[in-house]
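Lecture 7 notes. Example A: sequence first, then its C-alpha cells.
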Amino acid sequence: MFGSSFSTNSVTSESGGHYLPARRVVSGFTKAYSMLSLQKYTTFDLSNFANVVERNGTVEKVSMSYNDFLPVSNLTINWIKASFIALAVAILLSLRATIGYFIRVSKYKLKNWERPGTGFDKYHIAINIASLALILNTILLFMRALGFSPYSSLRIHLLLNLVYVIIAVAYLVLMFYKLLKRSYSNKQKAVYIMSGMSAFLLAAFIVGWDLYF
C-alpha cells in the first residue's frame, strides 16, 4: 500500500547524485557550513556504503559507520547554484557602480556633469557601498565563526545583515517612486535599476541562507 522499503549493502537502482549528512544544521547562518559536506556519489560509490535503504527503486538513506546520508533533490542543487550565481552578479553590479561613481568624482570638475552625490545619486551610491560593506561583513562573520567565536559576539554581524535587508527594501521603494515621479535619462534609469537589482539579489541571498540569525 505504501511501497516497499528494504536495507541492503548494494544498490539496485540508478540513484547516483548529491548527498548530505543526516545530522546537520538546517536553519541559521551555520547551515551554509552543511553545504561543505555536500558530496556527489555514483551508484557504484553508494554500493560501498555499509547500508542502503531503498523504497520503490529510490535510495532514501545510505549509512556509514559514522553517519547517515540523505539524497538532495536536483531542485535543491539548482537552487544552491542559482543563489551563488545571483550573488556573483550582485557583487559585480555593485563593484561596477561604485568604481563608476569614483571615476565620475575624479572627472566632474573637468566636464559639465551633474556633481556625483546629488539628487538620487546619493542613494544610488549609498546602496552600492552598503552592498560591498555587506559582503565584507559576511566574510568577517564566517571567519570569526570558524575561529569559534561565541554566538553573542557574532550577533552584530547578523544584525548588520538584517539592517541591510531593510535598507535594500527602502531603496527599492524609493527608486520606483522616483522613477515614476521624475524624469531621468535612460542611462540613469539603467544605472539605478541595476543597483536595485543588486540590492534585491543580496537581500534575497541573506534571507535565503538565514544570514540574519
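Example B, a different protein, same format:
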Amino acid sequence: MLKLTLKGYKTRKSILLHGTFLLFIGLLSSCGRPLNYYRTYNPEVKLEKSLSTINKTITINNFTDNRSIKDKVDPNGYVNPPRYIKDLPVEITNAIINDFSKNLVFKKIGMQMDTSDYIMEGEIKNFRKNFKSSFFKSKEQIYIDLECKIYTRDGKLVSTYSGKSIIENKVPSLFGINKFLMNQHIRINDAFSNSVLQIRDQILKDSSKFVYN
C-alpha cells in the first residue's frame, strides 16, 4: 500500500510540473504584453549568392498583407505589427530587396517602375509563430506563406511564384526555455529565408521568360 501511495504521489507531482510548464508557455503565447524576447524580431533573409543572374532590372513593390484578420490581431500570432514591428509588409519587402540585390538574382533592383524591365507584386498570405500544447508535449509551429507575381513594364504577367515553409520544433523543458525563446528570431528567419529561396529557384528556372526589352 505504501509503494502504491508513493507511486501515485510521483505521478501527481509529474502532472503538476508538466501543467506548470504548459501554463508558462501559455502565458508567453497569449499575454497582451509578451516578454522582451518578442520585441527583438527583425525580418532578414540569409541566403547564398544566386547561381545565376537574370540580366534585367526589376522593381519590387511593397508586399500586400493578406493574412486573415484573426492572424493580424490574434495575440498568439508572433509578428503582429502593432506590437512587434512597425510595418510588416515594408520590412518583409526590404528584406527581399536586400537579398535580391546583394545576391544578384537580377542585374539591378530598380527604384522607378517606369524604367525597370519588370515589376514584382508580392503578397503575405501567412507569417506567424504559435505555441501548440497537448497534455504530454508542447511544440512551436512557424508558418510562412509568400506569393509574388512578376509583370513586364507594360503590365503583362510573366508568372506567379510562391514559397511556403511550415516548421515545427519541440519546446524544451523549463531548463532550456530561456535559450529557446532568445533564439526564436533565428528560427523564424530560417523559415522566411527558405520561403524566399523557393521563390528565387522558381524565378531562375523561368529565366528564359525574361526577354522583355
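Note on Example B: Residues 9-22, 26-38, 78-83 have pLDDT under 50 and may be disordered. The beta strands are 54-60, 64-65, 106-109, 118-133, 138-152, 157-170.
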